């Protein structure tokens, strides 16, 4: 019995996050200028309000069932009875606040941390000044270059190692090929920048 209720509660949480991530995913696939309309439609067409009413019903039903220890065979009756009761305004619903917060984050991404990180990722190779294809990171100073460009410079001085060619780098230490590792974060940023421009 308790196991069943735990499963019910976790299923209920899953539904929540699925609704939120579906809305986010749909926004992601829209053009920027259409996102606002889409969110307004979700709210105006009362999809959000309907969902919140449903949510309030579930919540009250769960509370009643759990506090009164309603037998499983009577649970459906409780759901039906509670569906008919008047509901709190949707603004009081926890999901309503959550949904608004997520959508605000999409409409005003400059306020979110995620985009700040994305903005600081440099996609331009400091050596060739063109967009990197295969970014590698210097583990000594953390500067990133395109593998091809840095290999070209190294070819000439491979025995002694070279200084970081990044302009303004304070690192005086010479480095060799083995000090370079693939820069996975920049690689991901390049891939998503490519996907955006398609
Ligand atoms: Zn450097």
Name its key features:
single chain, mainly alpha, binds zinc ion
Explain the overall architecture.
It holds the Pfam family zf-Nse. Pathway: Protein modification; protein sumoylation. GO terms for molecular function: SUMO ligase activity; zinc ion binding. It is found in: Nucleus. By secondary structure, the chain is mainly alpha-helical. The protein folds into two domains: 1-107, no CATH class; 135-196, no CATH class. It is 60% helix and 5% strand. It contains eight helices and three strands, in the order ααααααββαβα. The longest helix is centred in the N-terminal third of the chain and has 27 residues, at 2-28. The protein is elongated and about 80 Å long. The relative contact order is 0.08. Mean pLDDT is 82; it is low at 115-119. The chain binds zinc ion (ZN). Zinc ion binds at residues 138, 141, 143, 164, 166, 169, 171. Residues 138, 141, 143, 164, 166, 169, 171 line the site of zinc ion.
Give a quick account of the main beta sheet: strands, pairing sense, barrel closure. 3 strands, antiparallel
Terminus-to-terminus distance: 52 Å
Indicate the radius of gyration in whole angstroms: 27 Å
Work out the strand percent.
5-15%
Structural class: mainly alpha
Bound molecules: zinc ion
Give helix % range: 55-70%
Strand order of the largest sheet: 2-1-3
Number of domains: 2
Low-confidence stretches: 115-119
Backbone shape: elongated
Number of strands: 3
Order of helices and strands: HHHHHHEEHEH
Let me know the average pLDDT. 82
Count of helical segments?
8
Family: Belongs to the NSE2 family.
Subcellular location: Nucleus
Keywords: Metal-binding, Nucleus, Transferase, Ubl conjugation pathway, Zinc, Zinc-finger
GO cellular component, one term: nucleus
